[in-house]
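Hello again,

I reread your note about wanting to compare the complex against the isolated chains. To keep things tidy I'm splitting this into two emails, and this first one only covers the full assembly. Below are the input lines as submitted, including protein chains and any nucleic acid or small-molecule components. They are followed by the predicted structure of everything together. The single-chain runs will come separately.
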Amino acid sequence: MKTKILSILLILSFGIGFGCEDKLDLPPLGELNSETFYKTVEDFEAASLGPYSTLLNFYFDQNGQGHYNGIEYPSDDTRHGGQGVNNNNDFIWLPNNGDFAWLYSQSYKGIMRANVILNEVPNADMVDLEKARFEAEAKFIRAYFYFLLANNWGNPPLIAELTTTLEDAQVGNSQPGEVLNLVEADLIFAKANLPRSWTGTDVGRATAGAAQALLGKVYLYREKYTQAAVELNAVIASGTYTLLDNFGDNFRESLENNRESLFEIQFTRGDFNTWLPADFGLEGNQNVGHAGTGRAIVFRAACFLGICAPGANGQGYGRMHATKSLQKEFEKGDPRIISTIYRQGDPYFGSKFDSLWSITGSTPSKYLLDYISYGQPNAGSNNERVIRLADVYLMAAEAELLGNNNLTKAAEYVNIVRKRADPTGAILAPRSAAISPDAMLKFIMHERRVELAFEGHRYADLVRWHTAGIIDIPKDIDFGNPGNQNWNETYLLKPYPQREIDLVQILSQNPGY
Amino acid sequence: MAALKNACSSANHSRQKSKFFLYLNLNNIMKKNILRQLIMMSKKVFYVFVFQLIFCTVLLANSGNAQRKNIEQIRVDLSEENSSLLSIFNKIERQSGFEFTYNSSKVNLNQRVSVFSDKQSVYKVLQDVSQSTGLRFIQVNDNIHVKERLTPAEADVSIAIKERVSVAGIVNDSNGEPLPGVTIIVKGSTEGTVTDLDGKYQINAETTDVLIFSFIGFTSQEILVGNQTTIDIILNEDATNLEEIIVIGYGEKSRKLMTESIGTVSSAEINKLPIASADQALQGRIAGVQVTSVDGTPGSPVSVRVRGVGTVGNTQPLFVVDGVPVGNNSSGITNPLSTINPADIESISVLKDASASAVYGVRAANGVVLITTKRGKKGKPTVNLDSYYGVQNITRIPEYMNTNQWLGLTQDAYNAGNAQNGLVPTDAAYQVLHPDLREGSPIRNRNNQLQWRDQALNLNAPIQNHNVSVSGGGDNFNYFVSGGFFGQEATVQKYDLKRYNFRANSDFRVNKRLKLGQTFTVSHQEILRGVNGGGDGFLLQSALTAPPFFNVFEDPSDPIPNNRYGYDGNNDLGGLTIANQVGINQIVDNNDRLTRMLGSVYAELEIFKGLTYRSVFSMDFTTNRDDQWRPEYLVGEMGLNRPGNEFNDTRGEGYTQVFTNTLNYFKEFGKHSIDVLAGMEYQKNRSTTLSVRGSDFISSSRDFFQVVNNGRGDPNLGGGAGQFAFLGYLGRVSYNFDDKYLLTGTIRRDGTSTFSPEDNRRWGTFPSFSGAYRISQEEFFPRSGIISEMKIRGSWGQLGNSNTAAYPHIFRVSTTPDYGSGNTTIQAPVPINFVNRNVRWETVETIDFGVDLGLFNNKVDLLVTYYNRTTKDFLYSLPLPNSTGFGSTPVNLGRVSNKGIEIELGYSKTFSNGIQLSLNGNFTTVQNRLEELAPGIEEFTSDANYRTAVGQPIGYFFGYKTDGIYQTQAEIDAIFTGGFVDRNSPQNPRPGDVKFLDINGPGADGQQFSGEPDGVIDFNDRTYLGKTIPSYFYGLNIGLNYKAFDLSMLWQGVGDVQIFNQVRQDNLNLEGGGRNMLAEGLNRWTGPGTSNDVPRAINGDPNQNFRFSDKFVEDAGFVRLRNIQIGYTVPKSVLSKLEGFSSGRIYLAASNLLTITNYSGMDPEVLTFGSNSNQIGAGTDRGNMPQPRIFQMGIQLQF
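Full-complex prediction:
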């Protein structure tokens, strides 16, 4: 009898086995997906930060991979710390350059994330006003990344939709101007649909002013000076932004997102490993990686030939040094110098700065002065100022000069910046409008260099001025050796990463690489 | 004799098809031991004897008749007056027990005879009868032959009984275990007996008789009786025997009836090796199976490649333990095999062709490895003890520079760099030696490079293994219980693996038709280590490359203030600060623990004769806890700043359920037999992880900080979860005609949760067929030729592989990363995968044919097989252009083929002087080729140094070709004219730089390359430099036995394979000033004619001399004496004095004693760390731990 019951049970179990086809419907765990997400305003409040988060990846480690290495070192303001040749610094630029590849891949990652938002917004359960706002935010970030790509690579692939097929992944070089046209269109939309300011935890999101200023910058880079002047003047005239009284306050962590600032990359020091990029471990859904900025390490004084600054870690810290030519660029007594570079005898974290600590005698102090560096790791959360009003004034001055030949306006804007730096005017006398346009342009270029040193503008400025015929880099610019020896017009653009060239058959390398 | 043996063997295999053999089959009873196991298994053992009686009757005519008397001793009472001869015979038979035998046509049984006897002997009676009838009588044993008396010279009555002695003894196998059922026959007669359950026998024989001991699967032995009354015999397994029983998917089969390609390894072979994991036992044993250890770290993963590489994803086979699929082993910690005690393994079968593995269709594309654990045998409990201890060392460590050599190199490199870049001492970039290193500095007298090496090494690292098992059984049950301990330290400092295993297997026969059983195993593994990850070769590597003037320990005459650990951080010494990994390794604690429980229960029911139903449910539960303690250390102490201590605790658990139901029907009709299997299998896996970090603990005592929330710093939480499921339906039909024509057809339909349910992409159907023809069974086949056994076989089939990133069809959104908004950290959910809805099964199609030969009366076994595996729509993680925003996506694309030949040769012979020799060799060729890719994709890279392209093997090395060193500027100027440039060398090469070759250029439309030099050295000039899949590999196993001694050797080798020696690329870059360089750099170019091999020293390497080129791709073929072993079996005479012991053996062994190779690194057997399961990027040597040389001593006891 028992056997019979058992037999029946066994045979029944066989049948049960055949009923479990639906048991294959197992969703991924611990993740959202397109069917459960991108529906509500709350979803988009969170998702809209995805594109912004990519910005953090540029700054994540002590090497400043990407931004400092790829954007700042090529300029004539900075010298890489170690002795000998530094490829980025000295124009030995090869397609296998990891720093450039990182900038490239992270920029497109940000663009992809923006494209996803743009893709999903129309289907969401939101009112049009909300839709427009999220679309505008995504377009702002997309424009930011495309502008960076166009400046550094010329005519990079243009991808304005989320890539969903392998065929669509094969995108070659864009037509000249095509990328920047999209940037302009995105920024025009963003300008119209973003709020003037944010409150609470939304502070730090893109604003109409940021979009307008960036649009002005794009026009300026494209030599559309009159249009640039319109946008930049409008930002100034909006009254939303005013210069801080003290130049140095712009770089204090306690004064982030202040009234001079139009757009900043928002670093917060979370609980995670600040040495890793924000996206690290994403595939495995690991909760690691939360990028602060490695500026505290990159900018700090370290050691030179065995003479070490306090707290220096061999040559692990102190990679960036201010070139002699930048040191000389400051007018004698320019008060801004103390908030820009350390020189012999300057107060330095409780001691005096010794020029023997640096290969050039000086290291950056911008963002570092009075900065409370975290013990471990040495990464900070002081925001990166991407666009601030002083930059807008100087761009506006340039646009007024080159577009409208308005020397008066140019001088007025330059003098506003100078006056903030030296309210007395005793050291930095106001520039006169009664000079030649060339002389005014030189003043503007000087002012940009000292006002905005280490903020990532210098090499891009040199490239656009060279391209516009305003300067001749080999003649006018001193990178030091072997940079001077190596520079040629190839280096107006960066090489496409070798991996990209290998994978996209129709992508042509930039000339000279 | 031969005819007799044949009769018996066919009887045996008929038995195997009988009903109770079926359940035994399903019980995974193994191979050669099947008969032995059978007999102890249950009361069914008697049926075995019945069968043996039926089929081998003649052998059993005369056993157990010790007290035979002759006709003179037996007396009878008779009073017959004119009785018939027949009735007199009958009466004598009744009283005496003798039996008359006669030819009734010659003897008139009706003649009348009168006989009177009053207790007279039979002899006397027969004498009387002889007088009156003229017949004569001869007693032969119990018979009395009646014959005509032809001449008066013939005795009327005679006794033909010869002088016989009683002989008894025990027959054991080579492991000292008794062999029941061994046939013992007197040579030239039909007399014989068989051994009982304890292997005992008794037989009467004449002193001049020769006894033949034979048993299926063992080499027969002939012994002259002589004066011996006790003859104990050890029968050795017959290596070439075709009768062995092979475990196949959901069943088992006799080797000679196989239509499939299956390779096996037995417990005897496994037990001899000092291995941490069973997959290592496959190394060098089976044709078509290539096993490579990732490195020599204890418990490190192993790569197993069955017949080449069919896919670019996970290419590990499926591992099945006692019928439960446990997955593809892909990492050392989670390796499912690492938790199975090798000593518990009865056998391993590797299913190589489609037909064999088709029943595992779902994940069988890379082959299937079936592992069967031991089960008990009927009889009193048998205890086995098995223990070894060994020491391990690294045999080969490359030389690095001393301080003077390092300084010379650095000065040269600086000088060259300054000169080439036009730098003068006032330039910021002008390079000079650091003040610490200038003339007169005491640091120049430090030569610590050997101290660094020695402090990293763990000399004579112990390895040990201890096992005990008890097994036995009764009529209706059996059990096997074991416990084991395995411990191994790494050959570098602080890496200590300990593993404990427990197992209980049992079977219960409830009644005639129902049987239940279970397996259960628990294992616990702990690895205590410092910073060493799995690839702790990196500790040795970082120690070897520490600048030679760095101190390992603090200088007692110049102590570092507040140093807590005694090590030296060498902070900014000579301009360098490099973490003291030797020191950090000692103060950091990592503790990886893994506990695994794998249990299954089965029930088996015979519904009616021939039809058996079996249901198995299994649960594989794992839990792991890895914790990491890092105390505070500062740059002065360790060369690295880690303020504040930290403790991370990560835990995970996961389970896999498998539910299998099969119906098996077996039927014989005449010469036909069929075997049908149908079933379903459901498998589900689920896992979760949780991690917590504490920091800034007041106390650095483990007792304190292991409670994470004692930390005062921010906690950091992490977690994850995953799941997947498979569902499969399987069917198999085998047909056998007269053991001559054999056919098998299999089909499996599988579904997986990995793929999209749309368009049925989730499901795949995989059929296969195989057939074999045993020509030697034919009447016409010559019996006397050198070929004694011949079978031709072939198979075709399709298999599936779904091994890829799960859920490629779902647009997945992760809640990380975060962004700072309003000074708060906020989740910023982003998509994490490039969606590909079309991903489906990869299909592997295999064609396989071969011939199995038994030569010289099966003394030599020869198997030759040709195989051709083609993978269609193979699953590849396609690298995506970064412009998509993603890195890669799974796709089905293209076709890969693996073709080759497998040869297996076995030979065994027992020489007349008693030496037994066995040889087993295997040789495999693999030709791997990517046949095609998806349209529009011609060639692509995934890693800068590896490429996968049509017409080439998967994952080949891709880089620049070189042609020596430029000796003079004139030589360079001759080439670098007319626009000739090297894009990687903007300043153009200088004398002493490597000469890279311009061999190719960009192609016209639709062509990637022109194939012609184009005057530009750039990425187009990168080309094929070597491959990571060997063209051939082989193994040779040699066994020698003489009396109590045994010797075995296992040789193993691979050929025509290359390795990227990244250690050499990194440590020969000759830029100076940093980490220590290989001493090979001393041969560098210093002027025309000084070297055409090692370039000049120059800082910054402006010519990119150390770009990836053929200079660093080296031949990595090798032949290795994997294991050699000498054993001594203690004679019975000694053991019998030690009460309780039944057998004992001691042995000495050495592993990796000898390696013959041209490879310049530490070990040619190397895989890129972390990529044992994947062929892309499989051959990079980053300084992984080499395989240690192990000397080992062991003992095996039974009582």
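For quick reference: The two ends of chain B are 36 Å apart (CA to CA).

B.
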